[in-house]
Amino acid sequence: MRRLVMITVLSAFLGTACVPDVYLIDRQTVLELEASGEWQELDQAYQKQALNPGPQPLESTSDLVETRQIFGMTHSDLEKKPAPKSK
Amino acid sequence: MRTRQGMFLAWMMSLSLPALAADKPQKLAQLEKITVGPYDNFQSAVSDDESVIYFTRSQNLSSQIMRYDMKTGQIRAMTTADTDAKNPALSPNGKELAFTYYRRDAKGDICLLDGDEILCVTGPGAAEHSPFWVDNETLAFVRSNDAGTQSKLIFLTVKSKKTDLVIEGTLYNPSLAKDGRTLVYKGKGNELVLFDIKSRQPIRTLNLKLAGSTGPAQFSVDGQSLYFAQYMLDSNRDLRIDGRDAAAIFRIAADGSKKDPEQLTSLNQNCSYPFPTARVLYMTCAFEGALDVYRTSLTGIVPTEWTKDDLWEAHRAARSYSDRILLLNHLQARFQAISERELMERTLSNFILWGEWLPAAFYAESLSQAADDYKVHKILLDTYANWVALPRKENLGAFAQKLDRQRGQLESLPASPLQKVALGYMDLFANRQREARARAEKIESDDGLTLYWLTLLINLSAEKNSDQYRLTLEKRLLNRDLSEETRLYYLSRWFEQLKPGTDPTAAVDGLKAKVGQDILIADLLEHEKQLYRVVAAANRDATRQEMRAIVERIKRLKDDYYGMRLLFNRGMIVLYQAKKSRELSTIMSLWLTYVKKDTKEYPFAIEALRQNSLDLAYRFYHSDNPQEKPLANGAFMDSIRTSDDLESHYQYALLHFGNWGELETAYKSMQQDGLIRAESRMFVELMRKILLQPEKADKGDLEDAAEQLDRMRDDHVGVGTRYLFQGYLYHRLMLMTEKDFTFDRDLSDKAHRAYLFAIDAGWNNDRIKSSAYQNLGLLHSSIRNYSLAAEFYLRRNEMNYPAVEMKQAVLWLQAKAMYKSYRFAEASQAIEEALKTQPKNLLPFHEKAAFYAWNAQNYELAADHYTRLMAGLGDKAKASLWLSQGYVQGKLKRTAEAEQSLQKAVTLAKQEKPTRTEGVSLVYQPIKVQFVALGLLARLQLTITKKMSAIQERLAMFPGIMEQAKTLHFQEETLSAQQIKETQDLARWQLEAGQKKEAMGTLEQSLRLTQEHGTSFGHLAHTVFVSLKNLMILIRDQKLEPSATMVATLDKTLENAQKEFAEERNPAAEVRAKWTEVQLIALAFRLRQDPGRQKNFADRSQSILTQESVQFLEKEKPAIYAGLQGYREALAQSLR
Question: How many Å apart are CA B143 and CA B168, to the nearest integer?
Fold first, then answer.
């Protein structure tokens, strides 16, 4: 459906459809080239910037200190009887 | 300062960390991961030599059989994604693979892999599944009724196709021992039935006294043990425990000599499908996001060296109720350290404390003969489970009826505090919070579990009144009849009620006044106040003074296990929340100093320390205080010395690229002291080699580094960082080999796989996951797999960013991937989100925002962005941007603005030159912009003169455009059709303008073009039919007089169409209909000046409709035929 919609848009816009019959270029790329601005340098810079060899130095993550299980306290599992021997 | 901090911590560490290796493990073993997500991988079948694993992979709602070569790491699909397949079963000689397959039968068939072919040995009709091999020639499988309640176990000799019914009845998941004669299957309830296939007699039935439902079982290689999965939790809250819920692996003696099974994995690991080999146990687990194949020792994750005391100690240190359940099982099964009843009581408590009501109800039921309170528990747990599953918590229908029944049962039991509590819950479940609260306030009990239930009830019924809950917590923590563990549990809950960052003094003093002689509680309360004073301290001296007092308290409490644990927990949490990084590091160091290395607490302290060191390091790293920034070094080093964590190595090495000598000295020393592995040194050296000057690393360097990383061990802490780096190396190698639109598929697969391993290993680490998802987005964008790239970017965007610039970059790339995968609205959203972060250069973002918005048909938004963009660009705006703006304005019916923009596009395009952009074949062609802009101008609601002017200019361009159609990415046939249509449009407008003569000339031109079109693309083309129809209708309606040449051309074109139609073997219905319409209109056209036209048309058109080709339509496509009759009628009317 989406593809059909796009073809309609293309037809209305370009007066025809462009097809990748010689080069393997998708129609979205062609449309973007023809109808959009050129920000190749920015695009390449962003690609370079985004490629990470290691973990990102995030200051905060979804793993909150206060909810870490490691800092949790447990309730005894045998309250009525003497607590288990611990060494 | 940096040195002092680092040295202090280093000294602290060196006291307690002489070496990493210890004689006896102090923690539960980790499972070793074999397969990797993001898809679900399950049901492993392993070859005897463990070189190959077959498993089922489920992705995109389809399941396939996969083969994983353990030596090469290569994975390939054995079945195609278009048909579901599962349950792989490998023959004893490892040569044949059987599985359940769903191609011909949605209920399932048993099929074999025969080379590349799939050979099915059962036919459609019945559900056949669960294959296994009896020997290399005989296959066994289950045939079930549709409900799956009655089954037959059938043996089939593959070559002769001879079948043999072995068992009939209730049986699930059968498998055979290596002896080839002892079968095990799940029977009714939680029974495992052993059956001798030679004598066809049952051997024995093992009744498993475990909560939940028993799953697949397998014999150990020596046949002495049975490994099975027990589904025990109601994970999906559907009030049933079945194969879709969480399970643990158990083992039991096959000879029935021991009645209690031994638990091998923890329930929070959710493991099932055991497959024991001679050496290890393979299984499917799901605790890291997806189902995957793992392995562990045949004895499970509890170290066999652990004594009874070790188990009790591990039980005390356990942070999860799930681990406590596992350890209790071992205390009973291995040492009989507790009675069966105590085991059940403790297991019940743990399930209740965990909030797992259904398995708890099983143990309450088992204990219900011992005391009435267990009957109360059973009723309460059962009702609670139903209430939890209730979506809107409305006391209606079946739930209301159940509630009434349960209340009645409770009231019939002897009154007890627990019974009153349970009745309070019934009030709560019936949405009578006030009654529940009133009832709860009157209840007193000396039973710990009853008090737990009561506290929970008060919390749930308190609504917005948290005071009552806080006061209840105070009562509990002051109750000297409760154990210290439980009292400190309530104190920790009380601390949680304090608002982070606010002064707790008043609340703490209020409680302290009630504490009396309880020194431990008083000390812990004082500690909380002191922590706040550290947070609020105005100067260094004040901080030091408070910290000294904290150290003194720690010394005083050092022998109190639970006291120390809560004291450190609070210190870590409060100081972290207040960003008091230096004080936090002191607390961390103190903890490690006071925890003995040979205790079960030690691994928790190490892990907490590692996590907090990293958090701390990143805090320093991002600190606005320039004096604190360098402290990140020390914090990363602390983490390295504590745990040899690769993430810390990575960051520490990055910070030391400029001071490598210092790093080398430190690493040499740490390696000598046994604090880090040799491979950690290799890792940072590789990092430096590749990342110091990334652009200088050549193919050989990258390949060499990837190979060396491959040799690193998988059990290294922070292994996700290694996989991330390895993925990066393969990724860069792939980019190096990428040329135009080709790339090395093997390298992209390797990069993809390494990133997924990183995600799995760092499943709870946003720092690793954010990089891995980001890189996966980039990887799949570069190989033009935009849909997948978009998905990875979406996941990336769920996490934070290290800097706003990174967020802008990722959103830019995400929007692009969204656009290229036809997700225009989401592309538009992503770039809007980026714009909100105020990029330095707004123009590119406005341009993309406008472009994606118009693709998403949000023309208002697009127009708004174009306005800002054009204002920003001024004279620098190119023709293509004016064209886009004109298009959007046209869509919004802003005709005057659109005209202006499109005229500007035409003017500028004439001045611009073609420019090469991306790749080999993409060239920006201003001529196309001009051509398209003229087309759009002609469609605007302008005056006829303006429209004619635009279309004439455009028609004049056609020959040139057609010549370079391919370069301009136009299809020749479509261009030709467009030219014909527009020529006829021009003729119409000329007629409207009273230019009859010019119009005739234009129509003649359109006929010539139509004839050429027919010659090039066939006379039965839609364009030819439409053009001829339009032409004849126009001439007839406008009473034009065509020239003899024109009529001759028309006849010739019709004749050609007739000829081609006759040659067509079996024309499509649409072609038949169109050709019939053309024939009818041609007849009307020829008869237009005939006085007897009405009658003649009626006669001759009837013969057209009786043609064989049309009669075919009458039979096969009556709707089309009726349409043709209607068309004929309309033409007849028009001839009157």
Answer: 9
Q: Is A7's Cβ below 8 Å from some Cβ in B?
A: no
SS3 B842: helix
Residue of A nearest to B853 (CA): A36
Q: Which residues from A are below 8 Å from B774, CB to CB?
A: 50-52, 56
CB-based contact B150:B144 (threshold 8 Å): yes
Closest residue on chain B to A28 (Cα):
B820
Helices (H), B318-432: 321-335, 340-354, 357-367, 372-389, 397-412, 417-429
Q: What is the pLDDT of residue A30?
A: 66
State whether B880 and A35 contact (CB < 8 Å): yes
Alpha-carbon span B239 to B241, nearest angstrom: 7
pLDDT-derived band at B969 (thresholds 50, 70, 90) equals confident
What string of H, E and C letters represents the secondary structure of B141-167?
Answer: EEEECCCCCCEEEEEEECCCCCEEEEE
Which residue of chain A is at minimal alpha-carbon distance from B966? A22
Asked whether B214 and B230 are in contact (CB, 8 A), the reply is yes
Residue type present at position B833? E
Distance CA B1021, CA B1075 (A): 10
Distance from CA of A49 to the nearest CA of B (A): 7
Find residues 34-73 of chain A whose CB sits inside 8 Å of chain B: 34-40, 42-43, 45-47, 49-63, 65-66, 68-73
Task: Output the six-digit token pair for B84.
Answer: 């579901």
What ipTM is given for this predicted complex? 0.74
State how far the Cα of B302 lies from the Cα of B900, in Å rounded to an integer: 78
Write out chain B residues lying below 8 Å of A24, CB-based. Answer: 741
Determine the residue type at B793: Y
**How close, in Å, is residue B371 to chain A by CA atoms?**
14
Each residue of A45-67: pLDDT tens digit? 999 999 999 999 998 888 788 88
Residue of B nearest to A45 (CA): B809
- Give CA–CA dist B167/B196, Å, rounded: 11
The nearest alpha carbon in chain B to A3 belongs to B822
Reduce the DSSP state of residue A30 to 3 states and report it: helix
Q: What is the pLDDT of residue A27?
A: 64
Of the candidates B795, B548, B764, B567, the residue with the CA atom closest to the CA atom of residue B647: B764
Q: Residues with Cβ < 8 Å from B222, sequence gap 6 or more?
A: B178
Residues 6 or more apart whose CB falls under 8 angstroms from that of B630 comprise B1, B2, B620
CA-nearest of B673, B603, B613, B662 to B640 is: B613
Integer-rounded Cα radius of gyration of chain B: 39
DSSP codes of every residue in B603-656: HHHHHHHHHHHHHHHHHHHT-SSTTTTTHHHHHHHHHHHHH--HHHHHHHHHHT
Q: Identify the three-state secondary structure at position B38.
A: coil
Pairing of strands B201-207, B191-196: antiparallel
Cβ <8 Å between B924 and A38: yes
Q: What residues contact B729, with CB distance under 8 A and at least 6 apart? A: B690, B702, B703, B705, B706, B709
Residue B31 burial (10 A CB sphere; 0-12, 13-18, 19+) = buried
Contacts of B810 in chain A (CB under 8 A): 50
Which pTM value belongs to this model? 0.75
SS (H, E, C) B234-254: CCCCCCCCCCCCCEEEEEEEC
pLDDT digits (tens, 9 = 90+) for B43-70: 989 999 999 999 999 887 889 999 999 8
Chain A closest CA to B363's CA: distance in Å?
A: 14
Helix or strand run (H / E) with residue B923: strand B923-924
The total number of residues shown for chain B amounts to: 1136
Rounded to a whole number of angstroms, the distance from the CA of B10 to the nearest CA of chain A is: 23
Q: How many CA atoms lie within 13 A of B569 on its CB side?
A: 26
- The amino acid sitting at B808 is Q
